[in-house]
Amino acid sequence: MSPRAFSAAALAATAALSLLLTACGSDGEDGDTKPDDKIQGADKPKESPSPTAEEAADRPEIKLPEDVRVVADWSETGKPAEDAILRDTEQRIAAIEMALAEQDPTHAAFRFYSEGEAAAATEEYVKAYVDEEARLTGTIRLYEPTVTIRDDGTATLVYCEDQSKAFDKYLKTGEVNKTPVTKNSYFSHGATLRKDEQGTWVTMTDVTTQGASSCQP
User: Fold this and answer.
1) 3-state secondary structure of 161
2) Is residue 141 within 8 Å of residue 73, measured between CB atoms?
3) In the CATH hierarchy, which fold is given to the domain comprising 3-27+62-215?
4) Domain residue extents for the chain
5) What are the per-10-residue average pLDDT scores of the chain (217 residues)?
């Protein structure tokens, strides 16, 4: 069973846990393949953003393989709390990619930015790839964020993810499973976060919709 097929099975098994989907490319349901266009914002990737000295105290260092990039295609809002949420979410996505690359379903980096359902679902997701001895290769683009800070101090973050340039890579052979780009290459995320004692915005849940109309190019 390929990582692509296994990922689809893993999604069904972990949907109730609000899995952060990073099942790359497309499942090939439709044939509306789009041109191999350059990803907007990829020229200046923010592949593990540099936190401020205050923020960096106990944060894990994110190191990705040379063939993996996480691009946050959004600008600072000028509002400290909202900008911190965006930075920590970007770091979380990069940490998940590092867990895939290092084949570690319980990697401390993604657990630093996740808890509860989000952490459990991510562990299952990474394990699915580890079982297949595979990871992702290519570029993941995050875009169109909307942050809402609630009266109780928690926050919601809705954003899009473009995986049209990300594919499964088999570690034993180096083979890359390049799937066609379809509407299912694009995802919407609806995450809930809280600020922990260290000042980190931790993701508690992340409900993801594959092929979301709001995230189509």
Assistant:
1) strand
2) yes
3) Nuclear Transport Factor 2; Chain: A, (3.10.450)
4) 3-27+62-215
5) 39 37 42 41 48 62 97 96 98 98 98 98 96 97 98 98 97 95 96 97 96 96
